Amino acid sequence: MASKDYYELLGVPKNATEDALKKAYRSLAKKYHPDVNKGNKDAETRFKEISEAYSVLADKEKREQYDRLGKEAFAAGGPEGPFGGFDFADFMAQARAAGGGRGGGRRTTVDFSDIFGDLFGGGAGGGFQGFESRPQRGGDIESETTISFRDAVFGTTLDLRFSDGRTVKVKIPPGVADGQRLRIRGKGMPGAGGGAAGDLHLLVHVRPHPFFERRGNDIHIELPVTAGEAIRGAEIDVPTVYGPVRARIPAGTQGGQTFRLRGKGVKTRSAEGDHYYKVQIHVPKEAPADAVEMIEKSYTADVRAALNTSL
Asked: pTM higher than 0.90, yes or no?
């Protein structure tokens, strides 16, 4: 027997009308019915509780007794109380009979035919039997995972293990971004009665890379070069997510100057990014005096002339 308040179980106020009770029960029965939640003991218990609550509140005489005495009504008149207890097996038999299926047991003053007939198929041969044979789609699952920067760029396949013991193989598409939510069809809870499985809604986190930075579909890096390479120009290997690319640093390259390699960023189904490398000139901590003097003589203008000296 349910220990909770019947009105609370159905989510209705104490002055709820018969139609409001019926609507509330119909919604909850569809959600918690054992045929939809096979093997889920919590859902089965919940279904029993709401069914017990409705069988009392939908009966005018029993509802009056419940409203007057509350839970004490069940303590009066013997172990089962004046309501005669609630036999779930008997209730199911009554519901099947009301819906047009087979069933027996004593009849109830509550008419279930319009509830289970509308909810689970109705008509001759309908009721619970019709509902049990109707395919039901499985529920969706919310989950999250963390992948490497490389797997986010190129895609990967993961084995995700869920709390119900299932392991699901999930394909992560190329170009997925940090914080992106993926909807993976058919990887949710299994369906009932031959119904389709639900979907998996997967939140993806991407671990940062030591030197590659993603901005949209573009990749950015800071590229160290020597003072000599910047002054005279050079061909150097530029790291990209696809491997090193030989590129030219023009003579007189300045620190902070940025260059682009087209099409070397992240590729998705709808877009293709570029690769940007920003030059950082590394100056040696010690250098021969004559080399330093020669470099100083090469400056023909004040490098700070454009800066204001005060506010």
From this structure: no
